[in-house]
Write a structure and sequence with these properties.
Elements (H helix, E strand, L loop, with lengths): L1 E2 L17 E7 L2 H11 L4 H4 L1 H5 L10 H5 L1 H11 L4 E9 L8 E12 L4 E10 L2 E11 L9
Parallel strand pairs: 1-2
Antiparallel strand pairs: 2-4, 3-6, 4-5, 5-6
Length: about 150
């Protein structure tokens, strides 16, 4: 099952299955990088200064890795675990640089479910041209459904 429409899904913990996945594709723009830098205060010239970055080992400005990793909570909590779920942990390994203009495909895949603890674990990756640029694992907590008044 894949959900790539950026819509909220509302599954119970019992309905979440190993192998469920969600994906999102985004072409990174200069405005994305500048907005992320302004929001976070990460003004590293590798991200913002063409001349500085040109002389680096990367040869050009690179995208903030955390900008790309920020797709994972949305994919997990919006498209799989649903409203009210809480993204509680993430490990990341940054494998290759991403450049302005690259199209990134982010994907999360459910790797295990602990119904008793209401936890969902997943593998996460971002790729550019089918080459993995970020990989990691994450965890989300699924609260018990709210009771509604009748």
């Amino acid at each position: 099952m894949t959900n790539d429409k950026n819509e909220f899904r509302s599954l119970t913990i019992d309905e979440i299955q190993i192998g469920m996945r969600a994906t999102h594709s985004h072409t990174v723009t200069d405005a994305d990088v500048k907005s992320f830098a302004a929001l976070t205060g990460d003004n590293n010239p590798l991200h913002l200064n063409d001349e500085f970055a040109k002389s680096s080992k990367f040869g050009a400005r690179i995208v903030h890795g955390m900008f790309l990793a920020s797709f994972f909570p949305s994919l997990m909590c919006n498209q799989i675990t649903g409203p009210g779920s809480v993204y509680v942990s993430q490990t990341l390994r940054f494998k290759k640089p991403v450049y302005v203009g690259d199209t990134v495909v982010a994907e999360v895949i459910v790797s295990s479910v602990n119904i008793a603890k209401r936890r969902v674990f997943f593998n996460a990756a971002c790729s550019v041209n089918e080459s993995v640029v970020i990989e990691g694992e994450g965890e989300a907590f699924i609260p018990k459904p709210r009771r509604t008044s009748e």
